[in-house]
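A favour, since you know our structure tokens better than I do. Go ahead and set the record down below.
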Amino acid sequence: MRMLAAIRFQLRNIVESPQFLAAITLAALGIAVVFAEGLLRFWGSDVGSLPSAAIGWMGNYESIYSYLWVYMLGFVIPTLGCMAAGDSFCRDLRSGRYATLATRMGRRTYLASFLFAAFIGCFVYVAGMIAVSQIVELVVFPLNSSIDAFQTGFGSNAASMLKYTDYAAQLPFGALASISPYLLNLAYLAYDAFYISALVVFAAALSLFLPKQPLLVLAFPMAFVIVATQLAPAEWNPLVNLTLSISRAEDLSLAGMFSVPLLALAAGIMLAVVSEFLLKGDLQ
């Protein structure tokens, strides 16, 4: 089977799995909880004082200060992303389909398409969930608001009078805010999806060595974020990099933001290659 056909098959296997649907459901519940928290923050506010949905977005930490969203993005969504797209090998092995699929596709084609599908499937899942979190804000916030140009810190008692575009310009991708704050949010959506998908690719490669320990595989992205948040330098801190936090802009750089996910991708590929030699093709 050709690689593109194998990847399409693997993606269909991911999307049609009960785990993918469960991951969507659980993420939707989490988004609903964070959305409700945002509503409480603005309860009783004058309509004219509301920011746009771009700046009132639950993912805009500098405006909303939602710790629930930080926990969602740093711990819950990576775990659900892995459940949605990272453990399909373990499922194939448990169901007895692996031997048939590896024979039909070729073992190496199966492994390569499995990693490609894990990345693509997780990217689509994470990007879709974060996009939903932005779209639901349009239910209560206006599409555009004149107050956006003058204030940040809507969720606090210490609103800054700096222009949002000038304030956001300190961030990587921050220049996009001068065009539209939605573009800055979109850039962070894509970055977060890339970062989390890279961790899931490593977890997927790890599953080749732990085929009967799916819980360890699922726990890896969250465990990585917890450990790296405590031990890594500020510029490599996952929660700082994943969160749109302008007050931590001095700790952010494109090199720091992309070094960890790129290393995770490279390490995942190396694990898959090493599995060919150490396991001698016997992944069972």
